[in-house]
Specification:
By secondary structure, this protein is mainly beta. The chain has one domain: Lipocalin. Helices cover 11% and strands 39% of the residues. Strands 1-2-3-4-5-6-7-8 form an 8-stranded antiparallel beta barrel.
């Protein structure tokens, strides 16, 4: 069965989807940013990988592990901003799939005390990489009795 990839369908199970503030000038005070500080800002997704591959998005008879290329163009410019006050803002970007959808939607975000689990809009994901430019998260799911993982990579906007 062919499945359409939509940001809204990934958000509840993924996070998390998009992103933060711009870069700051480098300084020589050698301070290390906390994970909470690194998360703050705007992010846009650049990769969505299913393991094992679950769906044949392009109908070529082969299940596709990387789903991002099959994401609608109107969703590829969506981003999420994680603000310092625990507010997450999802933004439709410049191209909206449905013109009647609101441009932005606010919800909440938090990082667990052990700094391993990010929760956005009530959905929790595991942090697997976080630095000034990349946020990579992992979640699990199942479809028709088949369990899978989804790894989503975000780039700082």
């Amino acid at each position: 069965m062919k499945r359409a990839i939509t940001i809204s369908s990934l958000l509840p199970c993924l996070f998390v989807t998009s992103l933060f503030f711009g870069c700051s000038k480098s300084n020589n005070n050698n301070t290390t940013k906390s994970k909470t500080e690194l998360l703050q800002g705007s992010w846009h997704h650049t990769s969505v990988i299913y393991s094992p591959a679950m769906y044949d998005y392009n109908n070529d008879g082969v299940k596709d592990a990387e789903a991002y290329p099959f994401t609608a163009d109107c969703q590829k410019d969506d981003f999420m901003t994680l603000q310092t006050n625990g507010v997450a803002v999802f933004d439709e970007g410049t191209t909206k799939c449905n013109p009647s959808d609101p441009q932005t939607r606010n919800t909440t975000w938090s990082l667990s005390s052990d700094e391993k689990t990010l929760t956005v809009d009530g959905a929790s994901v595991t942090l697997i990489q976080l630095d000034d430019n990349v946020l990579k998260v992992l979640t699990t799911g199942s479809d028709n009795g088949v369990s899978f993982t989804i790894t989503v990579t975000y780039q700082r906007k």
